[in-house]
Design goal:
With 143 residues, the protein is mainly α. Helices cover 42% and strands 0% of the residues.
Length: 143
């Protein structure tokens, strides 16, 4: 059996195919929204306003993710968002850098555990994180 690793683009395509399994062919899956709802909405709310079901439990307050660009001179802070999601940026409410509140969902171990094919696991994780970041970019409030 050939065990070549696949490219980032191929990994993203395969991820899309995995997420569409079980959906009608004419039904499109918004991967960024899917990842956001499953990993972020419990605290940040479905619309990113900081009003998720767990918002009242967290004492530090939950930021409104729809104003990220406004709070950054009208530029979406992609690098900062990426580092927060992957755990490199220290965000107290997310827990330690080693174990963000969503566990290892965006770590290599998760990719290796949940995907049954040969791939570049780093590419899969990056694609998932970038999908959330792109979705957050779409949620930004108009000026």
């Amino acid at each position: 059996m050939n065990t070549k690793k696949i490219s980032t683009c191929s990994a993203a395509i395969i991820m899309g195919l995995i997420w569409t399994t079980g959906h009608a062919q004419d039904e499109k899956v918004d991967v960024g929204k899917y990842e956001y709802i499953n990993s972020c909405a419990a605290c940040h709310g479905e619309e990113g306003k900081g009003d998720g079901p767990l918002a009242g439990v967290i004492e530090t307050g939950i930021p409104d993710l729809t104003t990220l660009s406004q709070r950054n001179d009208n530029v979406f802070p992609l690098a900062r968002v990426y580092e927060i999601i992957d755990g490199r940026a220290d965000v107290q409410a997310h827990g330690s850098r080693d174990m963000p509140v969503w566990g290892q969902r965006y770590g290599m171990e998760a990719a290796e555990k949940y995907f049954d094919f040969e791939y570049d696991s780093e590419s899969v994780i990056r694609a998932r994180i970038l999908a959330i970041a792109e979705y957050l970019h779409r949620l930004q409030a108009e000026e």
